Amino acid sequence: MPAIPGRSALDYFPNQINYTSLKAAADGCMGCDLYKTATQTVFGEGRIRAAEIMFVGEQPGDEEDLAGHPFVGPAGRLFDKALIEAGIDRQKTYVTNVVKHFKWKPRGKRRIHEKPRAGEMRACEPWLEAEIQVVHPDILVCLGATAAQALLGKDFRVTQMHGMWIESSHAGKTMATVHPSSILRAPDSETRAEQYAAFVNDLKIVAGVIN
Ligand code: URA
Ligand code: SF4
Fold it and tell me: Is the pTM of this model over 0.90?
């Protein structure tokens, strides 16, 4: 008999909650339909103990799906560059996504990113909540609207509120900034440069409170 998918990630939770058990359990998650078309679960990674900053993106992209690691594709490379400019050591941070499986649609031979639905985000959210609990970062940074709306409410507007410290129950300090993928999608090089500068600026505000 084929396995019957559960209603959410909670159906796949381990008894003991720690990073290793969560990551292993998430490998077998069928809490929504996204596992069917993705290569593998891409769980969060990085500093577990004494992580100062936790970054939350939307969902793994094409390269992340193949590699099994978050933010290693084009958006990840831009993220790495911006972190260096802001003076943040990625090794000391924890990086994850709201949704752990890559959602895509075919376009020719390519797999094009598709935004996860609210139901898929809800199904996957227990993993993120548990990651926040075990990593317990001092600072939580939402990368883009999907993460900001999942963690700070659906009315949150990144365009207006990026770079500001927001009260939240998730961490001592919470901020949202733009998603590196949105910078890559900017319509022209001038807009891209502006958005990138704003991104680095927000990250410098974060660096300012840790360094
Ligand atoms: N975009 C995301 O939101 N997360 C990744 O891991 C890669 C691209
Ligand atoms: Fe489970 Fe999340 Fe993957 Fe859905 S996207 S199957 S809830 S890990």
Answer: yes
